[in-house]
Design brief:
There is one protein chain. The protein has about 120 residues and is α/β, with parallel strands linked by helices. The protein has one domain: STAS domain (Transcription Regulator spoIIAA). It has four helices and seven strands. The strands form two sheets. A five-stranded mixed β-sheet has the order 1-2-4-6-7. The protein has a two-stranded parallel sheet with strand order 3-5. Helix 1 packs parallel to helix 2. The chain is globular, with a radius of gyration of 14 Å. The termini are far apart.
């Protein structure tokens, strides 16, 4: 099974990590590379990273997600992240990533959040 899978729902490009444990450095490098390769494939400005399968990930993998977020912003892509398991979310909170990344509960609410306007929009 590939490390990531992609699909489109409407104008949202969805990337899902398929490995339940992302701990090995070579695995992290491969997934990080694959994630960055998805950015040019996003035809709209909406991308969703689904982490629902991932039970454990190293801090190096979290670094790859932050790198993906940066590259997406540089490309004008709005990135959301969803279905983060409890253990992984604890690490995100410790690293204060919930302040940097747009984290949503599930795919449905993440997709809906793309259409929500800000307070004055």
């Amino acid at each position: 099974m590939p490390s990531i899978s992609t699909r489109e729902v409407g104008d949202v490009y969805i990337v899902k990590l398929n490995d339940p444990k992302i701990l090995d450095q070579s695995q992290i490098e491969q997934i990080g590379y694959e994630l960055l390769q998805t950015v040019p494939k996003v035809t709209s400005n909406r991308m969703l990273l689904n982490l629902g399968t991932v039970a454990f990930m190293s801090s190096a993998m979290i670094g790859k997600i932050v790198q993906l977020n940066k590259k997406a912003k540089e490309a004008g892509i709005d990135l959301r992240i969803c279905e983060i398991t409890k253990g992984v979310m604890e690490v995100f909170n410790l690293m204060r990533l919930h302040k940097v990344l747009n984290i949503q509960k599930d795919e449905e609410s993440a997709i809906a959040s793309f259409d929500k306007k800000g307070w004055f929009g």
